[in-house]
Amino acid sequence: MYLIKEMPIAERPRERLEKYGASSLSTCELIAIILHTGTTSASAIEIAQDIIFDIKEASGLQDKTIAELSRFRGVGKAKAITLLAALELGKRALKDEKQMMIISTPAEVFNLVKDEMAGLKQEVMMAIYLDLKGRLIAKKQIFVGGLNQSLIHPREIFKYAVKYSAYSVILVHNHPSGDPEPSQQDLDVTELICEAGTMMQIKVVDHVIIGKNRFVSINDYIKKKGGK
After folding, report:
1. Under CATH, which number does the domain 4-96 receive?
2. Does the chain have fewer CB atoms within 10 Å around its N or its C terminus?
3. 5: how many CB neighbours lie within 10 A of its CB?
């Protein structure tokens, strides 16, 4: 175990935030600051690492309850409440901006996710959830790894659509090669998810593939190929 106070001053989360700003910190470091302290057996950083290992990404926090967060070593009810309070405060701070963010074109999808998908070494599928007016509700990482029809589970996509009361969803994933041209596998997976969306009465608006500074809308791709 290592304590934060044993780290070089320049590498400590609070000092780095003060010098470089909150955006320079990793999700793990931000959680460690919110936790404030560790335990006799684990530092705040180590506790934060446990949480990140479980939730995978920051948005996973919103799916956790006080009881679930309290089960992590060194968290407990008080720190769980603090984490959820910090999350809610951030959501409220961004609420007005999100209410104005309407996603209606593949280019807007690209601009929304390009920074976090740029340079990824493996394929990642995300789902963008929209309300009746096409306003962004949430975006969620759904799958990591090569898209395979036998591995992709539409229920993972639509359980969050139900959770967020979404009217529609846009799929987006990256091609680490940099070439966004859809593969047959991409087309098959899109068809599978669209069929599931029809049964759920949740429209799959499009599937956008992100390459290196480029993107392809599968809707547009199919139209150009003369498909339905």
Report:
1. 1.10.150
2. C
3. 8
**Cα(208)–Cα(127) distance, rounded to whole angstroms?**
10
Instruction: Give the up-direction half-sphere exposure of residue 164: CA atoms within 13 A in the CB hemisphere.
Output: 26
Instruction: Report the 10 Å Cβ neighbour count for 79.
Output: 21
Within 8 A by CB and 6+ apart from 191, the residues are: none
pLDDT tens digits for range 21-59: 888 888 888 998 988 888 877 888 888 888 988 888 777
CATH architecture of the domain 106-224 equals 3-Layer(aba) Sandwich (3.40)
Count other C-beta atoms under 10 Å from residue 26's C-beta.
14
Q: How far apart are CA 138 and CA 127, in angstroms?
A: 8
For residue 21, the Cα-to-chain-centroid distance in whole angstroms is: 22
